[in-house]
Write the structure tokens for this entry.
Amino acid sequence: MKMYNKKTISIVIPCYNESSQIVRVIKTIPDFIDIIIVIDDVSKDNTIEKITSIHDNRIILIEHTKNSGVGASIATGYKWARSHDMDIAVVMAGDGQMDPDDLPALLDPICEDRADYTKGNRLFTGEAYKMIPKLRFWGNAFLSFLTKIASGYWHVADSQSGYTAINKKALHTIDWDKMYKRYGQPNDLLVRLNIHNMRVVDVPVKPVYNVGEKSGLKIRKIIFTIPLMLVRMFFTRLFKKYMIKNFHPLVLFYFSGIMLNVLAIPLFIRILYFWISVNHIPKVNFLAWMMLKILGIQFLLFAMWFDMEENRPLE
């Protein structure tokens, strides 16, 4: 084992039809990486042939028998790293969009025991808006905001970045069989890490595009699935972290805020009905709706503030 700062390091590379870039990705991995775990998720091209043509005794090739998604591939790699007692597992995509020069920045906070999980953030640089395709940039910004609320890591941005590193403690804590199996995996994992009070650090990394990669990400497939998953994981986190492990009043604030906003919906519909049908808005109806909305928003903001303060030590 070569080791990095006295830590054994493995890199997990999930692959699906990555024949155009996988050879370059593997060949640019630094010598201080001990193990390269490549998981092929039933590629339809010659990805496996490309991998087996590389003469590097660090490579461990795992072939799925059924296409299960990028999250499932990462979970497979994590489980291999866990069972072989690796100190750190890094995730690097097989499409060439992650710069190996950023690896030390991801590894150092974990090696210095300042973090349990580090995550690349492509948005730190002022060039990100110019380099990242616009639809992805704004979609990423929207999902990052939802992920802040769902996960409790309010200091974390660029939630869709899959360039990450995780330590042995977290590898042995998270149930990888329950992790989200497709493109929402980074969002799902952040929520699970927060439930266990893991420290997360955002690390500036260079965005890499237009290197011949072919993205398998389809906006139409994730525009509803990831937000719905985040809603489910948000309530899971509230229940497990703030009710089961240690009761916190922010749960009451969140519940009250949600209920008040729900109760305001039929009043708003009634306002619209009277406005459209008789061009008149009942004053009592409007005041009741306005009071419910104001109180509902205030309760939600207080709950978010409590959540932010509770998780500040994990920054």
